Amino acid sequence: MNKTRTAFLIAAMLAGGSAMAQGAAGLVSERSISTNAALELATTSLERCRADGYKVTITVLNRHARTAVVVSDDGVNPHTIENSLRKAYTAFTTRSPSADMGKRTQPGLAGFMQLDKITTIEGGLPIFAGKELVGAVGISGAPGGEKDAACAQAGLDRIARSLGG
């Protein structure tokens, strides 16, 4: 009787373990840029733009394209807040620099441009941890998108090690 009870307990534990493993298979585990890394990226980008004489807004999005950090320099133009978000969102959505949208050919681009928060303006960059997209950064306010992108790249370079890059 004890052997039967022991065998039944072992079978029940194995079945329970199997059910637990199946339940775990129903979960998704995703990595995202941390708030600390987003702040460091934004701060470094702001320092670079200030050193170059530009007043900018930096928007950093997390893994779900939600705003993690927004930093607007003193005296920055108000349109830069929306523009930096659009640049970051475009980079996140396309998994490529926002300027790449302007290089796409018609007619495919026309429909995509109807989506909210999409832009062809340079200054948005995706954030990768290895090959995994974990966020995006967009900067607006420098006199030219290439200058915004350079500031964003400085921030990305600063946090690359913490992302495993």
UniProtKB/TrEMBL annotation:
Where does the signal peptide begin and end?
1-21
Q: Which InterPro entries match?
A: GlcG_carb_metab_protein, PduO/GlcC-like, PduO/GlcC-like_sf
* Keyword list, A-Z: Signal
Q: Where are the transmembrane segments?
A: none
Signal is among the record's keywords:
yes
Give the PANTHER family listed for this entry.
SLR1406 PROTEIN
Q: What is this protein called?
A: Heme-binding protein
Q: Which source organism? A: Polaromonas aquatica
